[in-house]
Amino acid sequence: MSTTELGLPALRSGVELVPALAADAPAQTGKDFTSDQEVRWCPGCGDYAVLKAVQSFLPDLGLRRENIVFVSGIGCSSRFPYYLDTYGMHSIHGRAPTIATGIATAREDLSVWVVTGDGDALSIGGNHLIHTLRRNVNMTILLFNNRIYGLTKGQYSPTSEAGKVTKSTPMGSVDQPFNPISLALGAEGTFVARTIDSDRKHLTGVLAAAAAHRGTSLVEIYQNCPIFNDGAFDSIKDRDTKDDAIIPLVHGEPIRFGTDGAKGLIRDSETGGVKVALVADVGEERLLVHDAHNPDPATAFAISRLTDAGILHQAPIGIFRQVERPTYDDQARAQINTAIEASSGSPTQRLAGLIGGGDTWSVV
Amino acid sequence: MGSKQVKQLDRVIIRFAGDSGDGMQLTGDRFTQESAAFGNDLVTLPNFPAEIRAPQGTIPGVSSFQVHFADHDILTAGDSPDVLVAMNPAALKANLADLHKGAAIIVDTHDFTARNLAKAGYDVNPLEQEGALSDFAVHPVDLTGMTVAAVKEFGLSRKDAARAKNMFALGLLSWMYGRPTESTVAFLSKKFAKVPDIRDANITAFKAGWNFGETTETFVVQYEVKPAKLPAGTYRNITGNLALAYGLVASGVQSGLPVFLGSYPITPASDILHELSKHKGFGVTTLQAEDEIAGIGAAIGASYAGHLGVTTTSGPGVALKSEAIGLAVMTELPLVVVDVQRGGPSTGLPTKTEQADLLQAMFGRNGEAPVPIVAPQSPGDCFDAALEASRIAITYRTPVMLLSDGYLANGSEPWRIPDVDELPAIDPAFATEPNKVVSTAADGEETKEFWPYLRDEETLARPWAIPGTPGLEHRIGGLEKGDGHGNISYESANHDLMVRTRQAKIDRIADSLPPLEVDDPSGQAKVLVIGWGSTYGPIGAGCRRVRKAGFHVAQAHLRHLNPFPKDLGDVLRRYDKVLVPEMNLGQLSLLLRAKYLVDAIGYNEVRGLPLKAAVLAEVIGGLVADAEGVDAELVAAGLANKEDNA
Predict the structure, then answer these.
(1) CB pairs A-B closer than 8 Å
(2) Domain coverage including residue B543
(3) Quick check: ipTM above 0.95?
(4) Which chain A residues contact residue B181 at CB under 8 A?
(5) How many helices and strands in chain A, by DSSP H and E?
(6) CATH code for position A179
(7) Residue A80 in domain
(8) How many domains does chain A have?
(9) Residues B506 and B541 in one domain
(10) Overall average pLDDT of the A187-198 stretch
(11) What's the pLDDT tens digit per position in B579-598?
């Protein structure tokens, strides 16, 4: 066995090879991305807010509508593509990343998006999610995390807190939940972020950064299910509690939160991890400065562990990690282009050469 | 040829057998290439354990390669070897029962030690036991000892030196049958170019084996099998997996679509992935996915994006892909699903052949999910079958099952290389414009929309609009869609219509198929033998025997299992009796009985090996006797007098 130098293609924006709108084309609006289909989520569902945010954000990309593809799996959020006037596929449970991988690898000129949920991405599709992340295929994955199974009417999900009483766990769930951010970081994710359905501004900012990233961008969106898990994210939405619940991550800035910025993150010399401290106790200079571009994912992972695994009272929000690494699809296409450049003759001539190669003999 | 006596033969079956580590597959393959270059017709049957290295010297560790070569066209790898080359006691014991009386055994005596005899389950050395091998012409030769002596000068370890014994054996057999040796010397020079000692030792052992044959008194006869008179053309020897991979490359060229293979390694299909990964110069993408499902998922995505999506697997992989195949049925996207069948169920017999996935291919999905099925009948035919599967997939916007099997995959035959200018063109006919007038203004100006499920009247295929095409943005998915516009619909009448329409589209494929070819040379046959897949050879050989004995029998072989050719029912009804030999418990029989209400009689074996021509000839003979009112014993006697030469 041997390895070979792959010759890393220059890194580009996530949408650099996707055709932009003509300069004289009329400006796009959210309406241009709204299909004629009636939206059928429950009243008050967080999915409405995300759909609106995405519809209003897409014009900012300045891309031709026909070069955008949304792929989803199965679940409430996976109805998303039907409501967008782009190309789209509502596929099968857990497999959207595989289909998106095929699309993104086949075509460099498409902006590829995956819409998935906590059950779709982390339970039935867990394998595909981690492998897509490690390959770093150029796509943006929007993972709607409501910590419950909605479409099947209320069973616990792989992000539900232990002890959760649901239809399938009347005595409380004995499953340990996944932390999607920790999982994505462990799977070699190059862009890992978390945002909230109700914070349009933050959500839009993260979407813009995710789309600009070349490679797999994983965006976990905390999303409220008003029917089966209402209030799961109240602590980070409630005016009275959110300052103490949200740990905002901004690249290059000290990580500070709480009322009047009284709290912050510092290195924990005992565990090698990161912990919350009172700024008054430790001093501003000891606060951890967020570095999303750190090639070592250890600190980002340590920060992700500050998310409550049980009922949510505290969670870091923002871009945990954004590093550059060659994408699977760019490299796969580069190998093909290299091979094509090295070939001569028409495809038919080359086919004749291929099938007529090897040891041959003639019968007259 | 040397100074020895030369005897003419019209055909020979040789089986090389040894331990998994003895290089028997390579030895057999080289002998095959030499025979192909010489111009014989040939058919091969590799047979090896699933373990990469089963315990050395044991029966489960025996690996063999059978080659049948002839001066006329032949159809099978042969029922029973004329020559067995056995490299150890286990190889002798495992293969002895397959030999006919009078067969020759060339045996390497070196490994017939007490320990190895015990490992093979021999209490007494059969080479020394009175009468143990008296039915055969036994040639005990110390192949290993002579190999070690011959390569002494290269200073290899004893172990490395002994490893060249397969080349010594190849050299000896090459002498015995007058095979040309140049290609093997060239092959070894290239294969071991980086390790000159090993290269030289192998070439020396090969030549030493040849020289031993020429000088020893152990072998007094050399045999000659003249080149076969095959149809004019340029030939190469080819395995089914290689031909299938070439067929997929050709499908890309003929359709103008880049081929995209999403696949997960699985025996016996992996060689197709390996081969296609070499052909990036044709724009072929190969993605080795994290699992079977991801493989087909990526292929479906690529098809949606305008490539020819392909996934390759074996039976267990098809089981995993079933839900995704259903998605491709529902979204009506082109997709070629290659199932190189192996023994099942579950992990089954990974390296052995079987054709028990027909009903899985036909029905193995939830809901009414019809999928066309195409099957090749010989290794070389895998090329044409792959092109045909692609034609159907692209033309009708549907997943297509291509059912090869382990015997076709690894077996080989001379293949007449087709003229690429005569290969069929395949038109993807992408949609480029809106196709549905939704309103007409007073001035006559029409407003058009794109309806992804508005169908072609002739084929019932839907338009294939790929991302990047302006104005045709649309959504598809696994939910039921409304007729024409394709929006989600749960309406009951619509579902009934769509289920029937998807079935009707697959049925329409039959309009594009040629009539079934029936081989009934006398035109007087009352018995029809019909099969599919790799049983073509044994069935054909069985029919030849029956005809040689003076009886009448017709043969037909199905390339298309779904839909069937339109005239199949008429063909079946023309004969008094219909025999369906299969390597399963009667899957095609079941389909024929269900669809045509004919009394299809099955002949079924699931032994992991191809059917035997002699056995089939007996079964056919029995039916012929019955149908023609002849005494069955007379027919049997007639068959017994006819030597199998196919």
Answers:
(1) 208
(2) 518-641
(3) yes
(4) none
(5) 12, 12
(6) 3.40.50.970
(7) yes
(8) 1
(9) no
(10) 97
(11) 999 999 999 999 999 999 99
